[in-house]
Design brief:
alpha/beta; Rossmann fold; 6 helices; 11 strands; globular
Length: 185
């Protein structure tokens, strides 16, 4: 059974995390949750409110990481998914995570990113010249690193599949699974 990494940290978004966790398992892959350390992380739920200009964040479920970033051997995995929420703002500075993302990209493995996950791809410097999408407030992160932002549900550019928010999970994972399943289990 091939393995796929699901990257989280504290304040990873609930739907951005749990939907791909179960969708990828549904096709027979082993999903390993990866965090800065092997421990329990606190997920959050993001929602909008008509009287607020920013997203409202509330506590969500807790999820344990199966492996810490420093212990990941990229060659053992078939792909990687970068969850959204606020976690990417912090974990993008983890040198081990960036090493893993760059190595998997160099191997041409499927990489999925939703919402703030684009901040990890930007930090890894792998989106220059690529078409991507993300939540609008992260558009700058993509463009300043040389990507072309497209405001649509999902964008597939080579081995990278990006989506805006959890609202686009169904089409995001549909396109990611096409890439992942082409490799076989």
């Amino acid at each position: 059974m091939k393995k796929v990494l699901l990257v989280i940290g504290d304040a990873a978004e609930v739907f951005d995390t749990l939907y791909p966790l179960h969708r990828i398992r549904e096709d027979g892959y082993q999903v390993l949750v990866a965090g800065p350390k092997k421990r329990v992380y606190h997920l959050v739920q993001h929602d909008t409110h008509p009287d607020w200009d920013i997203t409202i964040e509330s506590p969500g479920y807790k999820l344990a990481a199966d492996i810490g970033f420093a212990d990941i051997k990229p060659e053992e995995y078939a792909g990687i998914v970068l969850s959204g929420g606020r976690a990417p703002e912090y974990i993008r500075y983890d040198e081990h995570l960036i090493r893993v993302v760059r190595a998997m990209h160099a191997q041409g493995l499927p990489i999925a990113s939703v919402c703030h996950g684009i901040e990890i791809l930007a930090t890894a410097n792998i989106i220059k010249g690529r078409n991507v999408t993300t939540v609008k407030k992260c558009r700058f992160d993509a463009e300043v690193c040389g990507a072309r932002f497209l405001d649509q549900e999902v964008v597939v550019d080579g081995n990278i599949v990006t989506a805006r928010t959890w609202h686009d999970n169904w089409i995001w994972m549909r396109e990611y699974m096409k890439l992942l399943n082409r490799q076989g289990k």
